[in-house]
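Model the whole thing, not chain by chain.
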Amino acid sequence: MSETTHGGAIATGEPPRSPDDGLSPAELAAKYGLTVSGARPSLTEYVRQLWARRHFILAFSRAKLMAQYSQAKLGQLWQVATPLLNAAVYFFVFGVLLGGREGVPGGKGNYVPFLVTGVFVFTFTQTSVMSGVRSISGNLGLVRALHFPRASLPISFSLQQLQQLLYSMIVLGAILLGFGHYPKWTWLLVVPILALQLVFNTGLAMVMARLGSKTPDLAQLMPFVMRTWMYASGVMFSLEYMIRERTSAPEWLVLAAQANPAAVYMDLMRFALIDGYTPADLMPYAWALAAGWAVVIGVGGFVYFWKAEERYGRG
Amino acid sequence: MAVAEKSAAAASADKDTEDAEAVSAERRPTVIADGLHIVYRVNGGARGRGSATAALNRIIRRKPGGNVREVHAVKGVSFTAYRGEAIGLIGSNGSGKSTLLRAIAGLLPAERGRVYTDGQPSLLGVNAALMNDLTGERNVILGGLAMGMSKTQIQERYQGIVDFSGINDKGDFISLPMRTYSSGMAARLRFSIAAAKDHDVLMIDEALATGDKKFQKRSEARIRELRKEAGTVFLVSHNNKSIRDTCDRVLWLESGELRMDGPTEDVMKAYEEFTRK
């Protein structure tokens, strides 16, 4: 600025006469172009700030992923072992004990790929939501120490879950090959499906982050909500077959259950990966629903989160 | 000590004569606090029994607040800071100094009142962004990114940060997880990362006393450098000497209220009188 920058100190004991005397703090701030500290930026400015922090978001998600199993002896192997063990438990309970193999498109032999795909896809949404709830309330230290767009945190946690899922996809590939499902062109659909699901998950994580920052108790409640959602989405059984054949529920209930976002993304992923899961097995308008859910929840969640930007960090 | 005080007093007298000339130039405010109130809401800090039945009882009776207790940490503080000033914040423990700094940085929302700032003030410190399970190397990068440095900036300064911390003086420790460091080593690395960035309005919260003698000297020199580059500096410290050495204006907070605001020597004398009791 002027010489004052280099001049060092300025006397403060007796304020000198200056034209600024008698101005209220707000007028003084306006005169010198000072802005309110910690005020919420405009939506476009917020997006710009987030983009500028993209390297931090990515580095933070990777760091969290690395730190997760760093104390375990098997280390990063747990990234793959955890979802696999989950699938094994579900196979035993639902496949063997409860007869969930009935009605799986392409026959009973498809049950394992069907189940594992469902578990991995649903786990992606489930863990994104769970870490979203804690993304602000569990990182208050960070929020109170450094300045960055707070949406970085839920986004970063969703990306961490995506990276986790990519490890799982390697296992899934091996399982598919083991059951005689060889790569075909529809495998490429995995990319757009995951992209849409990521947007959906991130939006949902941002909604949960705002709610969780106000009410940390949600972290206790969410496991039950998520489990209910899981059973209602047909992770370990064919949703349409179970509702229609076993409960004789009205048609609209079948459609409503099938249209829920978790069911839609699982449906599409199974269609893309599993032989014998034909377009006829897809629910009507599956692609439109997948894109719709992503846009509505993704954009809506982002705006909802941004609206409280200046209030995060109050305990 | 007496000698140090005298020289400090002389220094501030020198500054006063300098200032007489500087005043004629524009006094540009950088931070304006206007009737600032900060209230923390603490979950689980309620008086009385914390048992489940007590909580249920509160919910049934719909007592407002329930488990929440409010802590009024800063009560109506107003001041204006100008470019080129180095301002010390003093007061006994729990008087609201750190809270005030965080509010200036825009990290804690105000209950009432406002803080206006020129640009983005930043706290010196990255502790919260670092992860103990990661190697020192990754933490340098993560910490730098968290402070808003670009990737190329970090690459340029990486070696400088590691050298400054002295982590590698006794072997290749930077590639080990931070949880394996001694507390002194970890503190040194944290300071080195935090001090790697240039700030416009810089706030230092008792960061001076970390590590061994040799490192303390180095870090003090670095803080002086940062001071020169920054427009306005806030320093929270319980070390009266470092306040006298670095600051030309002091704000004295006591239980959340601004008790005194003036030239270093005046406020420090009153404060020392107060603490002697």
